[in-house]
Structure formats: structure tokens, C-alpha cells
Specification:
By secondary structure, the protein is mostly helical. 49% of the residues lie in helices and 6% in strands. The chain has one domain.
């Protein structure tokens, strides 16, 4: 899976980052943010997003399998 961040154009290889974009921004999104830009867009820290990923995984969210 290869996507580029809509904000900074860095390539996104991490499936969890793509899944987090889908989970937080909606399943029909076509553009993705890297973790740093997503944190900036949502006005949260990168660490908070990493915690959310672990939380969604522990809840059994199928996006994070």
C-alpha cells in the first residue's frame, strides 16, 4: 500500500496510519495524512494518535488487524 500525505507529500507505508485516517476521517476518504500531519490537522499530539491506534487494536477494530 503506497499513498502520499495530502499535506506534506511524504509517502505513507504504514497500514496503521492509513487505517487511522479511515477510522477518524471516514471510510470514503481518498486523501490521507501522515501521522505528523494528521496530528496537526486534528490538533492533537502524535503520541495521542499512537495511543488511539493501540486502543482501536485492543477493541478489535478490523481496520487494525
Amino acid at each position: 500500500m503506497k499513498n502520499k500525505c495530502i499535506a506534506c507529500s511524504v509517502e505513507i507505508f504504514d497500514k496503521n496510519t492509513i487505517s487511522l485516517n479511515i477510522k477518524l476521517l471516514g471510510k470514503n476518504i481518498e486523501n490521507y495524512y501522515c501521522l505528523d500531519c494528521l496530528a496537526n490537522y486534528l490538533n492533537v499530539t502524535k503520541d495521542e494518535l499512537l495511543e488511539k491506534i493501540e486502543e482501536f487494536k485492543s477493541e478489535g477494530c478490523k481496520l487494525f488487524n
